[in-house]
Amino acid sequence: MSAVLLDAIVALDARVLAGHTAQAGDAFDAADHRQKVAASLETSQLICVERDGRHVAHTYFRPLAEGRWFVGAFSVDPAHRNASVLAEIGRRMAAIMEDEGIETLESHVYRTNELSLAFHEKLGFERFMENEKGFALRIERARLATSALGRRLGGRR
């Protein structure tokens, strides 16, 4: 992975996550985050979305166990939170899930991040655990196809 792409990922994460992280009582340290992202991406599948040559969204997920993977990030620039970007992420995510034999994706979202929670649920994720800080969500590959987004995509890859 190039340093430029890693910088773009960390910069977008800082813009969209720092406030929610602070509201949840945790600290967002960009240098620490950069190291964690770099380490995670060594074993992750990465999806990046660009518009007009600019990095506007990314997600990456890594294996936890056979057929079960964890989403390390869903970050979308606020100016690009639209159906086109969401559909591209969903379509590419479904293709990777199929290609890699991923049956379940899991993710965590702070309670303070209502937009991310809504985004996950639009993709078809369901809550399966919670604590005082946030929610654990998951989606089965078959559910992605039947979610509102999946129906709109109509199986397109």
From TrEMBL:
Entries under InterPro entries matching the protein: Acyl_CoA_acyltransferase, GNAT_dom
All residue ranges annotated as the N-acetyltransferase domain in the record: 1-144
Gene3D superfamilies, per the entry: 3.40.630.30
Name of this protein: GNAT family N-acetyltransferase
Domain of life: Bacteria
